[in-house]
């Protein structure tokens, strides 16, 4: 989604190749290659690009499962990686460019959220956590996820 929202011209084939760290896997047949391209370009890319319409906001996949420190740490790890990947795709290795002030603020908030998720990831699992502590962390993560969605959609609408 970051690449789609990027201010820079993005080659979807390059992005597809990047999923395998630049070493696209060998496929058994031309039909297999066509299927991968169809799934990535026609289904995934087009589906994500549709979120540039404010009537179709981008949503993060909600987490489920029992509230435990291990689950919360795992969820924070996943969400932090998702936001980091969005920003990597968005910036496209560019460092110096003008950005709409609202979008720039949203990117700053996303960076702060990544740090907050890292704080959860780095909690000491040996430290006892009461059910109330875990509920508080879970509630805070729900708010963080809502903030992330809001800021992602702000970037998408201002830039895509």
Characterise this structure:
By secondary structure, this protein is an all-alpha fold. The chain has one domain (1-160). 65% of the residues lie in helices and 0% in strands. The protein has six helices and no strands. The chain has helices spanning 2-5, 12-18, 30-49, 69-91, 101-121, 131-159. α4 packs antiparallel against α5 (101-121). It is globular and about 55 Å long. The termini are close together. The mean pLDDT is 87.
What general outline do the C-alpha atoms trace? globular
Helical stretch count?
A: 6
Helix-strand sequence: HHHHHH
Q: Please mark out the parts with pLDDT under 50 across 5 or more consecutive residues, or reply none.
A: none
Task: Name the average pLDDT.
Answer: 87
- Overall strand count: 0
The gyration radius over C-alpha positions equals 18 Å
Number of domains: 1
Q: Could you estimate the helical fraction of the residues in percent?
A: 55-70%
Q: How much strand? A: under 5%
The structure class reads mainly alpha
Q: The biggest beta sheet, please? A: none
Measured between the Cα atoms of the first and last residue, the distance is 10 Å
